[in-house]
Specification:
CATH topology of the largest domain: Cytidine Deaminase, domain 2
Radius of gyration: 19 Å
CATH architecture of the largest domain: 3-Layer(aba) Sandwich
Helix content: 25-40%
Strand order of the largest sheet: 1-3-2-4-5-6
Strand content: 15-25%
CATH class of the largest domain: Alpha Beta
Length: 306
């Protein structure tokens, strides 16, 4: 697959509309109205959620369960063709959709799980706490560990079709940031002191640096950020999110691709990318970033260490 494909080849809007059309009629009108006005349902504002609750008579759990097919419409699952959706309940009252993403010609370790996607989506929208997460099946161990990194791990509720459980019930005797002396867990606002770029640095590098400043890397201190520019000139940024168990860490490129996807686009829409990371850090995101971009024929990568 290459960037020569149409940027709209994997647009989510037809799938989102199809998912809406399968919902109870009481939900369709307010969702269609919001979609027409905002061209996206990736974020369900608190006011819209209240409208949906009043329209169908379900509670918040019931509405989010009904909306899971809409979340799954954002899935980018070219390997498994198995579409998973998740909806995070933000402490602000807003709800954030997420879906799984898979990448051709890359190891399965590059995959983004739906729960990771939704949590990253909320994080990059400025949420500092989560109330719950709705999914259609019990989360895998990888995702339970990722959830356990958040500020809300002790009180997070996981809502499933037939039951609800706390994360602590799903992950007993958990290992997390507190075990390694980290008190500012994932979702705490970060503002790291990283050197400025040279004045002539392009806007894409500047966006990547801004993301790196807000990244979460308490274990390696290898702060990193990625910015993507589409063929249409839109810029999407993502930041590194580490995990106490290391493997569930979310690379900055994947974080940026989540934001690209939740805007209705796919990797084939990317024209250029930038990666900024801390100089002389313990780990580097360069090789994996180059590999994943290369799989989509994206050879414009601006790279800077600071």
């Amino acid at each position: 697959m290459s960037s020569s494909q149409s940027p709209s080849a994997f647009s989510v809007l037809p799938a989102v509309q199809q998912a809406i059309d399968q919902l109870p009629s009481a939900l369709q009108a307010p969702l269609n109205q919001h979609l027409q006005q905002h061209h996206s349902l990736a974020v369900i504002p608190a006011a819209l959620m209240q409208t949906l609750i009043e329209a169908c008579g379900l509670d918040c759990r019931g509405v989010t369960l009904a909306l899971l097919p809409v979340a799954a419409a954002y899935s980018y699952a070219l390997i498994s063709n198995f579409h998973v959706g998740a909806i995070v309940w933000g402490a602000s009252g807003n709800f954030y959709l997420g879906a799984n993403m898979e990448f051709v010609q890359q190891s399965l370790g590059q995959t983004i799980h739906a729960e990771q996607c939704a949590i990253n989506h909320a994080w990059l929208h400025g949420e500092t706490g989560l109330v719950g997460i709705t999914i259609n099946a019990s989360p895998c161990g990888h995702c339970r560990q990722f959830m356990n990194e958040t500020t809300s791990a002790q009180g997070l509720t996981v809502y499933l079709p037939d039951t609800q459980q706390t994360l602590q019930q799903l992950l007993p005797a958990a290992f997390g940031p507190r075990d390694l002396g980290v008190t500012d867990a994932l979702l705490v606002s970060q503002q790291h002191s990283l050197p400025a770029l040279e004045e002539h640095s392009n806007s894409l590098l500047q966006a990547a640096r801004a993301a790196a400043i807000r990244s979460y890397a308490p274990y390696s201190h290898s702060h990193a950020g990625v910015a993507l520019r589409t063929h249409q000139g839109e810029i999407f940024s993502g930041r590194y999110a580490e995990n106490a168990a290391f493997n569930p860490s979310l690379p900055p490129l994947q974080s940026a691709l989540v934001m690209l996807r939740m805007a209705g686009l796919a990797p084939d829409a990317v024209q250029a990318a930038a990666l900024v990371e801390r100089k002389e850090c313990q780990i580097s995101q360069l090789a994996v970033t180059q590999a994943l971009l290369g799989a989509y024929g994206i050879d414009q990568l601006h790279y800077q260490t600071i």
